[in-house]
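Input C-alpha cells:
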C-alpha cells in the first residue's frame, strides 16, 4: 500500500500556495478599497469645485428662491434637523427596547423565529414602500397631514429594523459570564439588563442608531411620497413665540408644520433647466454629506469613549 505522507518539498509547496492566495486576496482587497475611496474623493471634489462659490453665510440663511444666486438652504437644513429629531425620539426607544426584549426575554419558539426573520427582511424593503405605508397610515388615517411628524415617523419606521438588529448583535457580543455572574449574586433579569447588558452593549447600539439616522437623513423617496414641499419660504413656529397678533405657538406646534429637507431641495434644484441651480445643488450636496460625516464622526468618538470605560 503506497504511503500518503507528504514530503518536505510538498509541504513547502502547499505553504507557498497558501501564502500566494493570501497575497492575492490582500492585493484585491486593497484595490477595491482604493477604488471606493477614489470614487468618494472624486465625487466630493467635484461637488466642492462646482459649489465653492455658494459657500457663503447667505447660502445657509436664505430661503429657497427662483433666482439661483439668492437661493439658500435655511428651510432645508432646519427641516432636516427637526425631522431627524422626531425620527430619533420615535425609533431609538422602541428599537432598543424591542432588541433587548427579543434577545433577553422572548422565548425561543416558532413565533419568535418568524418575528426575527421578518425584522431582518424589513431592513431590505425599498424605502418607497415605507413612504406608501406612511401615506396611508400617518397622513390619511391618523390625520397628521404632510407634516414634520409624519416625515419623522416615516423615517423612524425605515430605520427601526436597523436599530433592532444592531441592538441584538451588540447584546450577543457580551460574554455570557457577565450575565451569569450578575444573576449568580441575586440580581433579577431586569437589573442585569439595566446595570450590565445595556451599558456594555451601548457602543454597538449607538453605532447602529447613527448608521440608521445617517441613512434616514439622505432618504428622498418616502419623504416625496408623503408630500414634502419643494419650495418653502418659512420656518416651523418656535415654541412660545408670537405667530399672529395675540396668538403664541404651542410647545409642539412645530411638529405639525409643513417642511422640506435637504435631499428634496437638492432634487428640486437638479431638475431645473437653469445651469446656475446645479451650482446650488452641488453646494447643498456637500453640506448634506458633511452632516452625514459629522454624525458618523460623533458615533465613532462616543463609541471609543464608551469602550474605554468598559472593563470585563
Amino acid at each position: 500500500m503506497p504511503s500518503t505522507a507528504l514530503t518536505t518539498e510538498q509541504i513547502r509547496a502547499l505553504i507557498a500556495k497558501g501564502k500566494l492566495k493570501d497575497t492575492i486576496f490582500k492585493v484585491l482587497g486593497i484595490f477595491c478599497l482604493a477604488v471606493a475611496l477614489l470614487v468618494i474623493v472624486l465625487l466630493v471634489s467635484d461637488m466642492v469645485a462646482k459649489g465653492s462659490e455658494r459657500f457663503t453665510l447667505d447660502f445657509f440663511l436664505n430661503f429657497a428662491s427662483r433666482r439661483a444666486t439668492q437661493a439658500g438652504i435655511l428651510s432645508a437644513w432646519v427641516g432636516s434637523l427637526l425631522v431627524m429629531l422626531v425620527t430619533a425620539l420615535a425609533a431609538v426607544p422602541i428599537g432598543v427596547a424591542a432588541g433587548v426584549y427579543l434577545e433577553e426575554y422572548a422565548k425561543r419558539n416558532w413565533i419568535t423565529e418568524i418575528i426575527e426573520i421578518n425584522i431582518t427582511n424589513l431592513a431590505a424593503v425599498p424605502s418607497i414602500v415605507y413612504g406608501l405605508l406612511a401615506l396611508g397610515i400617518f397622513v390619511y388615517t391618523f390625520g397628521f397631514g404632510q407634516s414634520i411628524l409624519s416625515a419623522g415617523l416615516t423615517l423612524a419606521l425605515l430605520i427601526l429594523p436597523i436599530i433592532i438588529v444592531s441592538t441584538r448583535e451588540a447584546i450577543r457580543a457580551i460574554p455570557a459570564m457577565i450575565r451569569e455572574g450578575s444573576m449568580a449574586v441575586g440580581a433579577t433579569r431586569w437589573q442585569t439588563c439595566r446595570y450590565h447588558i445595556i451599558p456594555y452593549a451601548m457602543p454597538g447600539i449607538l453605532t447602529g442608531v447613527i448608521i440608521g439616522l445617517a441613512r434616514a437623513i439622505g432618504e428622498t423617496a418616502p419623504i416625496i411620497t408623503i408630500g414634502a414641499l419643494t419650495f418653502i419660504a418659512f420656518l416651523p413656529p418656535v415654541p412660545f413665540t408670537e405667530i399672529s397678533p395675540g396668538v403664541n405657538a404651542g410647545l409642539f406646534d412645530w411638529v405639525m408644520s409643513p417642511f422640506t429637507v435637504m435631499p428634496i431641495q437638492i432634487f428640486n434644484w437638479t431638475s431645473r433647466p437653469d445651469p446656475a441651480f446645479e451650482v446650488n445643488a452641488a453646494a447643498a450636496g456637500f453640506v448634506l454629506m458633511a452632516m452625514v460625516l459629522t454624525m458618523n464622526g460623533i458615533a465613532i468618538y462616543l463609541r471609543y469613549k464608551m469602550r474605554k470605560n468598559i472593563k470585563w
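The two ends are 55 Å apart (CA to CA). Residues 121 and 301 are 30 Å apart (CA to CA).
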